[in-house]
Amino acid sequence: MDPVVIVIIVVAVVLLAVVLVLLLTRGRKAAKAKEAERLRERSAEQQLQVRESDADARSAQAEARRVKAEADRQAAEAEQQAAEAERRAAEAERLQAAAGEKESAASARRAEHEETLRRAAELDPRGGSGDGDQHGRPAHDQQDHDLHRDDHRGHDEQGRDARHGHDEHDQQQGHRSLGERLTGHGDQGRDDRHEHDEQQGQRSLGERLTRDDRSTGGAYAADPGDAQRPQHASEDDRPGPDAPRR
């Protein structure tokens, strides 16, 4: 075979090998580029997923913190309500104890009042339980009190009309006369007033004196116990402008 032909064949084979190598190299580069592009796209997708996952994680953490804060708040409110319930229970017990003490005091006062009424009835059985005043006075003491009150009221009304016509001696004399009258007729008036009260249906002497005073224009009621009382206050008995009122 001719050496020239052999050289040409060798050169052609080398060129084909070089071309094949170049084609293979370019193909691998293109494949790598495609793979890299695919990996970059996948990386972008993964990065987006990572961001979404991070946002979800932050949201979950915020929700967890919110739920924990709500649970803590509810626990604190529950503790506060429990403390308030204990305080109210203690307050209720205290009020109940105070109510029991007041009830005991009321029972003691009621028993004392009943004992006073019983002793008053034993001392004066004729007085009855319905003729005493609201402070538990016996009937005759209440009648004396009404008598003194009406005497002072009548003399005060008469003294207002005549107070400018009396001197200091008349004022002192009037008070002495009033004290003597009230003292002198107190003992005798009890028995007479009691008999008169039985005839008039246990009406108080103060009411009779007021009614008789209105009907007679200032005179006292004409009963056995008032026979020695003056019908009108004398000029010396009238209190003056400086007389103290009782």
Automatic annotation (TrEMBL):
Which residue intervals are annotated with compositional bias (Basic and acidic residues) in the record? 34-44, 51-76, 84-125, 132-215, 232-246
Enumerate the transmembrane spans. 6-24
Sorted alphabetically, the keyword list is:
Membrane, Transmembrane, Transmembrane helix
| Keyword Protein biosynthesis found | no
Region Disordered, residue ranges: 34-246
- What is the protein named? Colicin import membrane protein
User: Which species is this record about?
Assistant: Auraticoccus monumenti
